[in-house]
Amino acid sequence: MPRLLLLAFTLLVLSPLSYAASVYQWKDASGNIVFSDQPPTNQQAQKRDIKSNVVDTSGGNFNTREAMRNNPVTLWTNSCGQSCDDARSMLSKRGVAYSLRNPEASATDFDLLKKLVGSATVPVLQVGSKTLTGFNAGAWASALDEAGYKTPDPTLKAGATPADKSTTKP
Q1: Using CA atoms, how far apart are residues 94 and 67, in angstroms rounded to an integer?
Q2: What confidence tens digit (pLDDT) does each residue in 56-75 have?
Q3: Which domains does the chain have, with CATH numbers?
Q4: In the prediction, which pLDDT does 76 show?
Q5: Band of the pLDDT at 15, cuts 50, 70, 90?
Q6: pLDDT-above-70 percentage for the chain
Q7: Mean pLDDT, range 23-41, rounded to an integer
Q8: 33 three-class SS
Q9: Most buried residue among 34, 45, 117, 147 by CB atoms closer than 10 A?
Q10: Residue 106 contacts by C-beta under 8 Å, 6 or more apart in sequence?
């Protein structure tokens, strides 16, 4: 009995996901193109498969997406303690998607950070072409605001996860 209930529940949940509507297209006697979910009687029609329509809203509102495109955010951090924790927390609370670089875990990141700021001291925030060393909530908030990351962005969940670091250049 439990297996039958599980099967019924699974089919019920998955059935809307596999739904694809059939639409028929043909020309009427006046030459107008007609679309319908029922085929015409005594007339040739083309069958069109319509898939579900999905709108991606995971990137926030337009302004946030533009900020992400024009001024990507990179956080250079490691297990440096309270300042690194505060830096990650601030970005998460604001819903800012960021790439995460750890100079402790990667020799490449270590060299890049040293070239960028002259040392491997973290945390460091990059917002577009602007680089801020050391965590300063006011300065970081100002840089994010100037770059278009308005706070708070209600379209993003609190606790946003870092973006894939391979897509953001240091």
Answers
A1: 13
A2: 555 567 777 888 889 999 99
A3: 2-50 (no CATH), 62-167 (3.40.30.10)
A4: 93
A5: low
A6: 69
A7: 81
A8: strand
A9: 147
A10: none
Q: Which of 23-27, 49-53, 101-105 has the lowest mean pLDDT?
A: 49-53
CA 112: distance to chain centroid? 26
Residue 59: partners with Cβ closer than 8 Å, 6 or more residues away: 65, 68, 97
- Residue by residue, DSSP assigns 44-72 as --EEEEEPPP----TT-SHHHHHHHHHS-
What 60-64 contacts at long range (C-beta under 8 Å, 24+ apart), as own/partner pairs, is 60/95, 60/153, 60/155, 60/156, 61/153, 61/155, 63/148, 63/150, 64/95, 64/148, 64/149, 64/150, 64/153, 64/155, 64/156
Residue pair 106/94 in contact by the 8 Å Cβ criterion: no
Report the alpha-carbon angle 127-130-133, nearest 5: 90
